[in-house]
Write a structure and sequence with these properties.
By secondary structure, this protein is an alpha+beta fold. The protein has 14 helices and 33 strands.
Length: 604
């Protein structure tokens, strides 16, 4: 009997798998300039970078032309090169380019695009932009504006979810936004509490208050960030779940009232409320909990008549009880792990459903196979407390993609090596050059003699080494093949500023040039005489002015970069001599923000 049940179960799985494959074949046969009942032969991607490239790949596969928009700073970006057409929409600030709805609509009309894919971020969850597309007769590849509005306001979404039978976490979502009211509700709920912006997502406007003493400071910080990000500083208060897991469910709806779930992703590995590792399916989640999660997410989607790709986010305690947090009304960065375990193309689903087709697969046809991880690469400095490292991309090297490895990117590596043309050869003489190099913190004196046959004699202290080799390009990377006293090795070579990095199977090494004394002296003076920027970013708030007396640790400024707010504090007690940056200004890393008077001037 058990054998019969097993055979029957496997037969059902094989039937569903064949059905899924057959549906995929049918869809590819139908792929042309017409999708569904609408003529979608060209789409505009109102975004940049990784997601723009991702959408373009699927569009090309489906025979749909793509239109890129770009700011002046992105003129040479990958998504511009990949597109069939590309249009400049303004200067680098996003408010004047990627967030300029009217400019993007003008490009859509000029290029005769029938639909707009918003990607993620920028206008993807903008109710007004979705409504603008509807008024102009352009298909918005996303949910209806009503769903974006209802799910974009956390207090409204939680009320809708509670009415729909979706479990929600205890909290305050009321209209009274006075500090006294919010503080009283936080005390009633019990610390620690989560302070969240009513609008938006992505970790913006979110703070944790562990005690009543720090509540008002965290509230002010969250409000300030929310006002800048969403132009709305309304807050809600929720109970902070100890030792939580962040588990979210991929849902999909169509215009015919159908909705399905494509299983869950665990996004608990985070830093500063930003996801780092995503995993699908969630580890340790059994079939019964998985089914309850999926069905709750579908309830959430149907409660707002959802259409297209969306994500319902839950917080889960150690006992696998879960509570609704929010719904992201767009495709998410982590959607590839869901595609990998379900064998689907969610961007293709988006285009087909936006054109009026039904969801390509019903719930019983969606199979879970395998396990997938996504690791995000952030532009941060690990040597500086992982501060945001904005600026030009100097080096990037990724593993080659294959059936088990997927690379999602919108940037490319620099191929030129400044060392490729360097030489020390001299005619008829043996030239010796003395170098001072840095091995970590240690300075090493090296004497290099260039031999006529192209080799080198390198003397370090009392030892001499015979060295030869070459620098060459391979697979879009730069390599050094060297022979040291007859032992040959191959290393990947990366040169950044004054430092050479070598990567080889046994590990890595780096060699640098010492900073000249006059430069290090200038640097140390700047560090001691005031406060400097720990990262490249925007000055959000300034607390001091010339003549103010400050104590060690007093807040001087607030800077924002890559969704992170950082308070700049006084490195010592003193008197402010000059504030070099005002609110809204951009400051580069190590720029002097606030100068202090010298001690002699203070005592006079």
């Amino acid at each position: 009997m058990a054998l019969l049940l097993a055979v029957k179960r496997w037969s059902c799985c094989l039937w569903a798998l064949r059905r899924q494959r057959w549906n995929q074949v049918q869809r590819f046969v139908k792929c042309a300039s017409t999708i569904g009942g609408h003529n979608i032969g060209k789409i505009l991607i109102a975004n940049r970078g990784e997601i723009a490239c991702r959408v373009m790949r699927t569009a090309k596969k489906m025979g749909v032309k793509s239109v890129a928009v770009y700011s002046e700073a992105d003129r040479n970006s990958m998504h511009v090169a990949m597109a069939d057409e590309a249009y400049c929409i303004g200067p680098a600030p996003s408010q004047q380019s990627y967030l300029a709805s009217e400019k993007i609509m003008q490009v859509a009309k000029a290029s005769a695009a029938q639909a707009i894919h918003p990607g993620y971020g920028f206008l993807s969850e903008n109710t007004e932009f979705a409504e603008l597309c509807k008024r102009e007769g352009i298909i918005f590849i996303g949910p209806p504006s009503s769903a974006i509005r209802d799910m974009g306001i956390k207090s409204t979404s939680k009320a809708i979810m509670s009415a729909a039978g979706v479990p929600v976490v205890e909290g305050y979502h009321g209209e009274d936004q006075s500090e006294e009211c919010l503080k009283e509700h936080a005390k009633r709920i019990g610390y620690p509490v989560m302070i969240k912006a009513v609008r938006g997502g992505g970790g913006k406007g979110m703070r944790i208050a562990h005690s009543e003493k720090e509540f008002l400071d965290q509230l002010e910080s969250a409000r300030r960030e929310a006002k800048k990000s969403f132009n709305d500083d309304a807050m809600l208060i929720e109970k902070f779940v100890d030792n939580p897991r962040h588990v979210e469910v991929q849902v999909f709806g169509d215009q015919h009232g159908n909705a399905v779930y494509l299983f869950e992703r665990d996004c608990s590995v985070q830093r500063r409320h930003q996801k780092i590792i995503e995993e699908a399916p969630g580890p340790g989640i059994n079939a019964e909990v998985r089914k309850r999660l999926g069905e709750a997410a579908v309830k959430a989607a149907k409660a707002v008549n959802y259409v297209g790709a969306g994500t319902v986010e839950f917080i889960m305690d150690p006992q696998h009880n879960f509570y609704f947090m929010e719904m992201n009304t767009r495709l998410q960065v982590e959607h590839p792990v869901t595609e990998m375990i379900t064998g689907t193309d969610l961007v293709e689903w988006q285009l087909r459903v936006a054109a009026g087709e039904k969801i390509p697969l019903m719930q019983e046809e969606i199979l879970l196979r395998g396990h997938a991880f996504e690791a995000r690469i952030y532009a941060e400095d690990p040597k500086n407390d992982f501060m945001p490292g904005a600026g030009p991309l100097l080096h990037l090297s990724t593993p080659p993609p294959d059936s088990f490895t997927r690379i999602e990117t919108g940037v490319r590596q620099d191929k030129f090596s400044p060392f490729a043309s360097s030489t020390g050869r001299r005619l008829n003489i043996c030239h010796t050059r003395k170098l001072s190099l840095l091995d970590g913190e240690n300075t090493v004196e090296v004497a290099v003699t260039y031999n006529q046959e192209g080799s080198y004699n390198m003397q370090i202290q009392d030892e001499t080494f015979l060295i030869s080799g070459e620098i060459f390009n391979e697979d879009d990377s730069v390599y050094l093949r060297s022979s040291v006293n007859g032992t040959v090795c191959k290393s990947k070579l990366v040169i950044l500023d004054n430092t050479i990095y070598l990567f080889f199977p046994e590990g890595s090494a780096q060699v640098g040039l010492p900073v000249p004394k006059y430069l290090s002296a200038v640097s140390s003076v700047g560090m001691q005489s005031g406060a400097v920027a720990p990262m490249t970013g925007t000055v959000e708030k300034v607390f001091v002015k010339a003549g103010d007396k400050v104590q060690t640790g007093d807040p001087l400024m607030v800077m924002i970069a890559m969704k992170m707010e950082h308070t700049i504090r006084a490195p010592k007690a003193g008197v402010v001599k000059k504030v070099n940056f005002q609110e809204g200004a951009q400051a580069n890393r190590h720029a002097p923000l606030v100068e202090f008077m010298d001690e002699e001037a203070e005592t006079k």
